[in-house]
Amino acid sequence: MRAFLWIEALFNRLLGERANPFYYLGAIAYFQLWIVVVSGLYLYLFFETSVTGAYDSVEAITHAQPWAGGILRSLHRYASDGMVLAMVLHLARHFAFGHHRGFRWFSWVSGVGLLALVYVSGINGYMLPWDEAAQFVVVASSEWLDALPLFNGTLARNFLYPASVNDRLFSLLSFLHIGLPLGVLALLWIHTQRVPKAHTQPPLPIAAGLLASLVALSIAKPALSHAVADLAKVPSTLSLDWFYLPVLPLVYEWGRGATWGIVAGGAALLLALPWIGPRRRAAEFAISVHPDERIVTARRGETILEAGLREGLPMPFDCRNGGCGKCKGRVLAGEVELGP
Fold it and tell me: Rounded distance, CA 28 to CA 21, Å?
């Protein structure tokens, strides 16, 4: 918590409270998702779902139209990475401030599910260009999944020889790469509907600065393919996306069972966090709001702003975290736990 407070105070001094990105981590992830969706739709127009056409079509997108397809391919890649970073920071911040317990458990659990679904979508996306990195991702994923009783060693057999891969694989991968993001959007809608007046778009200065940074990065360091995939040989050197693919090398370093244990154990721990640790006795507090003398009820662990919004009070606010000061009020009677 102290680390987040120190970082947020630093950004407040540098950028001002209204442009502090740490107050809009969820909205920043949301914004980058739309960048991924729009750029992905453009790339899909020129992508060929076939063994012989997948690699060549991605190369044509990258090099034949560098100021459209090339930049959009890189933008697709870097916005995807940025979305994962924003989601992880968003999750860590809510955990640090204790915003995962009590009635917030649903937002926390759905957020963990969102992160998992985004990871699966990203890993699936790396299979499409059919270069050496895609070959590694496909083979490693199939070997890892083969450790489950559901598959029992049947998946990896499809990638033993070059002739065993056909066009149906790319039709399946493309279908998944469209269906999984639709699942992300659906779960994201559920996730944000449970948060009163949640921000789904960052302020314009943050959005413009983020988009400009991603475009500049795409121009300075474009995303490029490895050599074309060849199942007859094993790639020796790869440049991996460590935002999405850190687990796959562990399949060969630590074994399939151990990797499943780490991933499943970590997921179970994240899902159980709202109920782990000392539990406070449930309590409610009555708040008398002036000048209309209306009484609202606040739950333990809930801020006055959250309680007022839940009860439908027209309370002014901007950041929901007390950084901007727009929701400031005066205590006429009683005591308030100010917290950090």
Answer: 8
